[in-house]
Amino acid sequence: MIQAQLRNPLSYRSTPTSAEHNAPRFRLRPRQIAMLSIGLIFILVKSYEGLSSFFLAHPQVMPALLGSSAAAGLTALGALGVLFARRISERTQDIMLGYGGGIMLAASVFSLIIPAMNQAQTLGYGKTAAVLLTATGIMLGGLFVLAINHLVPHQHFIAPNPEIHSARTSRIWMFVMAVTIHNFPEGLAIGVGFGGDEMGKAIALATGIGIQDIPEGLVVALALRTLGYSPWKSAGAGILSGLVEPIGGVLGALATGISATALPWALAGAGGAMLFVISHEVIPESHRQGHETQATLGLLAGFVTMMLLDTLLG
Questions:
Q1: What was the pLDDT predicted at 16?
Q2: What parts of the sequence cross the membrane (predicted)?
Q3: In the predicted model, is pLDDT for residue 226 greater than 80?
Q4: Structurally, how many domains does the chain consist of?
Q5: Does residue 70 belong to any structural domain of this protein?
Q6: Closest by CA position to 104, among listed 278, 297, 267
Q7: DSSP state letter for 107
Q8: N or C: which end of the chain has fewer CB within 10 A?
């Protein structure tokens, strides 16, 4: 018997153990599959009805979501650039950062702060009161971003040539978190812009922020690439850093829909948040490598670009 089994091992059949006998078998019967399918369809229909009702009740949210999602898409486009270029010179990076800072600076002034003062006057505030309201909103917006900076661990700059690989990894991901925090006020500004009465200015704002998101996504991806991450993982991290923008866009649009009096506050607050990011992150980073002149020229070019967009589209 044993010899026969050795000659033909396939003829041997092991006896199932008690554990195999007792192992649960998950098999869906046709009736269960049908019930699950009906339940899934019901959930999808109800979700669609709920979203339709929500967008009807808040008509400013849909364009804000589309605009901020487009900006996030351009962040992704920039991050995908790492698949074709492993690195770019530090001077070029600083020029691109300066250019993005210039766009943000002009956007905060022309598309957020000035409209906030105009909107306040439309609501009946005097000129002085409108200026004071806007100034207070700017300060509150800056303090809001400052609070996020203190509450969320992050790091604005990547320390050069760290000795320990794990420490370097931590620093790079903290840098990615800093860019994610940076992107939230941008999405907020887009949402607030679409919550206002000037659609042209909102489109110009979303366009300008989207343009400056392209080099931003590339810089994040290149930072991870220098660590040794694969191009696809580096691009993925850059893409993830921009996904917070649609969230900010929806929240910004909802803030403007609370009441008519909330709009100038929201516009001024978004402008202050962007001013804080420019001074606290963009300009220091673009000047850190000793290319202050080139970065400043890039900032001027970005400012002019956004000014033209606001004039042509607004």
A1: 52
A2: 33-58, 64-85, 97-117, 129-152, 172-196, 262-283, 295-313
A3: no
A4: 1
A5: yes
A6: 278
A7: I
A8: N
